[in-house]
């Protein structure tokens, strides 16, 4: 067992003998806790934690509080605790939780992880076979409609300083695909994308901002439906790898949220009780791989 016991068996419904004295817990349960610190003993806020049982099944998960604490009430048993945070090496520990008792792992120190190697400076291009540009929209206030654009191309110029890099992506508007032909035809019509007048969506950026660890912000102009707006992609750089033929690849994931009205996509039908048929916010989710330009 990793860590130490803080307190002994307590009367049913309470944890006694420590800082959590008086905390009500269900019968046959106990409390698992720790505090997450960085190498200079500062607390790590919003680190993610997952508690799994002896069979490897997730029991509970969440984020550390503003003081770096993990606190979980779980049935008595054997558990594994995993803690992860951006820019740190994951922590794994184990503990035994007894009925009405507190299993405290004390202070858990996360070690700083080495950042992944950045792509070499030069001209790169999006590799479409292993990339995807998807979106999610609300439908009639409850269901979520998922879709993607099947045809796109992009070029990335990696500078000596990553912050000075640039990218240009062109998306074929008519390639929109939600797996329903009638809906896709409507999305291509003048009510929405109007692909006859605006055949492409384009994104151009010259602003790469490092947000720490593997996180970057990529800001630029998105032109959609004939309107250009500044958009920032929340980007996680996943590092370098090699393809089946040995070619070097770099990968990232990026997300952002668009509002249809910002791009004059204002078509709407209201249902009973004032519920909109299509939500105003569109979540964009991209998985991108780039390769050196041939």
Task: Briefly summarize what is shown.
The protein has 294 residues and is an all-beta fold. It is 3% helix and 53% strand.
Strand order of the largest sheet: 9-12-13-15-16-17-18-19
Question: What is the helix content?
Answer: under 10%
Shape: globular
User: Which structural class should the secondary elements be placed in?
Assistant: mainly beta
Cα radius of gyration in angstroms: 25 Å
The string of secondary-structure elements, in order, is EEEEEEEEEEEEEEHEEEEE
The count of strands amounts to 19
The chain-level mean pLDDT equals: 86
Descriptive notes:
The chain is mainly β. The chain contains one helix and 19 strands. The strands form three sheets. An eight-stranded antiparallel β-barrel has the order 9-12-13-15-16-17-18-19. Strands 1-8-2-5 form a four-stranded mixed sheet, with no helix packed on it. The longest helix is centred in the middle third of the chain and has 8 residues, at 181-188. It is globular and about 70 Å long. Mean pLDDT is 86; it is low at 1-12 and 270-276.
